[in-house]
Specification:
By secondary structure, the chain is mainly β. The chain has one domain: Jelly Rolls (Sandwich). It has no helices and nine strands.
Length: about 100
Amino acid sequence: MRPITQSQTGAGSTTVVPMDHYISPFNVGFGVVVSGTVNYTVQHTFSNVFDTSVTPVFFNHPVIAAQTTNQDGNYAFPVTGIRLTVNSGAGTATITLVQAGMTAS
């Protein structure tokens, strides 16, 4: 997948970036760059992000939660979607995601 970048200024969440959870091995790397003052968390879901009748349940990344500086991390287990949530602050947080892997045979 090509890198996908999303930004959030002020409190709130970006739209969910769907992941291809059928790719094996499942590998997603990401980096978050901050501008100004923000407190942010990277979140993931296992819910069907394409089903509009379902309200996705989000879980915080185990390391990149309540951060205030540039950070990078990864997901080595399948998730269906990833988003960036700015918890507080008036600055901007920008996440770039890259998913790699071979398709299952």
